[in-house]
Write a structure and sequence with these properties.
This protein is of the alpha/beta class. It is built from eleven helices and twelve strands. The longest helix has 17 residues.
Length: 323
């Protein structure tokens, strides 16, 4: 007897019936960039369709996304260079841009899930994720600053705090700080396997947060390594993470699957700025069908095992009814 798998591909109805991997709005997290000022919306030149918003316009954007069915947002601040210093003090200043944005989004849209980024680089005059002394990024000294930052985010109303710094022990340290201050319900989405990738360029353009010297290879992971991610995931799980994240996504689908198969926590994947920019540039040149390419990218990330996808495509997918 000849087995014919094509019988299950012969019509759209049957193909939909047997489809193994699905994407819904609930799987998507939309990263949003924030700038100071009033009634400003500026496009990120290297990320067509993605903008920096002042808080008033941020609220309008969140409202529009909520109407589309998108309810999870990861906020990132673009901090004026004059406010940056060695110790990232602007990150915890009451009334600062980022803390005000978190609070206003939660007050206006309590049903939204607000995710916040914990790392020093947006606020650091050195542009690194940790405290720099004599050219070295210090680990344990950085934890104190990260803990203060996370507490400030929780006090402002964050639902999920996402440490992206890759310092050793930061998940346990932040978990203790939150718990000791009564924020036991605030979740931690750890950037578990964050690689020293070439695909972050447009993001650093959006936030003006590139390192002023050196690179991040002493704390972000080597793109050649896979099993090292298991060490990071085991530590994050033991320290109290609620989600494990892989960043970037497309070049690391094997790592997403590795963590999906090895751990019971939800797996998040960050479809990063460079991955987004590649699709946009190719589509604008007529080299790719944008809808098909976008959905193939997101489906591949889900198929590899991602529970949630942080993606700049989130809004357009819902606006264009591509799901």
């Amino acid at each position: 007897m000849l087995i014919r798998p094509r019988r299950n591909r012969k019509s759209a109805v049957i193909r939909d019936m047997v489809q193994e991997t699905h994407i819904t709005a609930s799987n998507l997290i939309f990263p949003l960039f924030i700038i100071d000022g009033n009634n400003v919306k500026t496009e990120v030149s290297s990320m067509p369709g993605i903008y920096r918003y002042t808080v008033d316009n941020l609220l309008r954007e969140v409202e529009h996304c909520m109407e589309l069915g998108l309810h999870a947002f990861d906020l990132f601040p673009n901090i004026d260079e004059s406010l940056k210093d060695k110790y990232a003090t602007e990150s915890t200043r009451k009334g600062s841009l980022y803390l005000r944005a978190i609070a206003e989004v939660k007050q206006r849209f309590p049903e939204a899930c607000v995710i916040t980024d914990v790392a020093m680089d947006p606020y650091s005059s050195d542009g690194h994720d940790g405290l720099v002394e004599n050219g070295e990024v210090l680990n344990d000294e950085t934890l104190i600053i990260l803990g203060q930052m996370a507490l400030a985010h929780a006090q402002a109303g964050a639902d999920i705090i996402a440490p992206s710094d890759m310092m050793d022990g930061r998940i346990g340290y932040i978990r203790n700080v939150l718990d000791e201050n009564g924020f036991t319900k605030v979740s931690l989405m750890s950037y578990t396997a964050k690689y020293a990738s070439a695909f972050y360029g447009p993001f650093r353009d959006a936030l003006n947060s590139a390192p002023k010297h050196g690179d991040k290879k002493s704390y972000q992971m080597d793109p050649a390594n896979q099993r090292e991610a298991l060490i990071e995931a085991e530590l994050d799980t033991q320290e109290g993470a609620d989600f494990l994240m892989v960043k970037p996504a497309l070049a690391y689908l094997d790592v997403i699957k590795l963590l999906r198969d090895g751990f019971d926590l939800p797996i998040a994947a960050y479809n990063v700025s460079g991955e987004y920019a590649m699709v946009k540039a190719s589509a604008r040149n007529g080299w790719l069908d944008e809808r098909r390419a976008t959905m193939e990218v997101l489906t591949g990330i889900r198929r590899a095992g991602a529970t949630a996808i942080l993606t700049y495509h989130a809004k357009e997918v819902l606006e264009n009814k591509w799901l």
